[in-house]
Design a protein that fits this description.
25% of the residues lie in helices and 34% in strands. It is α+β, with helices and mostly antiparallel strands and 183 residues long. It has one domain: Gcn5-related N-acetyltransferase (GNAT) (Aminopeptidase). The strands form two sheets. The protein has a seven-stranded mixed beta sheet with strand order 1-3-4-5-6-9-7, with helices on both faces. Strands 2-8 form a two-stranded antiparallel sheet. This is Putative glucosamine 6-phosphate N-acetyltransferase. It holds the Pfam family Acetyltransf_1.
Length: 183
């Protein structure tokens, strides 16, 4: 599948489709985005509600030199199949955030390719660590990251309250765990 995909830095022209795609991945369908009612679609809609991002937030990210948003499209029709936010938080660390993969591409190595793209950027920036934050209750996702070489580093992060992204907590799960691997 790798030869059928194109991973590149997203641009301001991609903001409308990225906004729709990311919110559908995280929160679910609002009648304007992809159909995420399928059980194959991995979302956190039982944990958080509202919007995960906004066009304004994505634009702000794209204007920040420490943040890169990658998009992955199918070469055949340029359909968006995955996205990920890479944040160079300091000279040692790059974070993967908002990793989203379409259910039609899950289990086919697309997420792994997106993580590898962030790691490639991290190496270019001379980062020593690649870190992620995961809901503590997402055991399957934690196991997936462990297969990619990530390990829990003991840091737990309480979920913040509502933000400019306008999402809110819907469950008792309010802890993110941090995982990392060396680059």
């Amino acid at each position: 599948m790798e030869n059928e995909l194109l991973i590149e830095k997203a641009t301001e022209d991609d903001i409308p489709i990225l906004n729709e795609f990311i919110n559908a991945c995280y929160i679910g369908n609002d009648d304007n985005g992809p159909d995420t009612s399928s059980p194959e679609w991995t979302s956190v809609s039982k944990l958080i509600g509202g919007r995960r991002t906004t066009p304004e937030f994505l634009l702000k990210d794209m204007q920040n030199l420490d943040i890169t948003i990658f998009k992955c499209t199918a070469k055949s029709d340029l359909q968006l199949v995955a996205s990920c936010r890479a944040h160079n938080t300091d000279e040692d660390t790059i974070y993967s955030e908002m990793l989203c993969v379409s259910p039609t591409c899950q289990g086919k190595g697309v997420g792994k390719l997106m993580v590898a793209k962030v790691e490639e950027l991290g190496r270019e920036l001379k980062c020593k660590y690649h870190k992620i934050q995961v809901f503590s209750c997402r055991k399957g996702l934690i196991e997936w990251y462990e297969k990619l070489g990530f390990k829990e580093n003991g840091k737990q992060i309480p979920l913040p309250g509502p933000t400019e992204r306008a999402w809110f907590i819907k469950s008792d799960v309010t802890i993110l765990i941090e995982m990392q691997k060396s680059l």
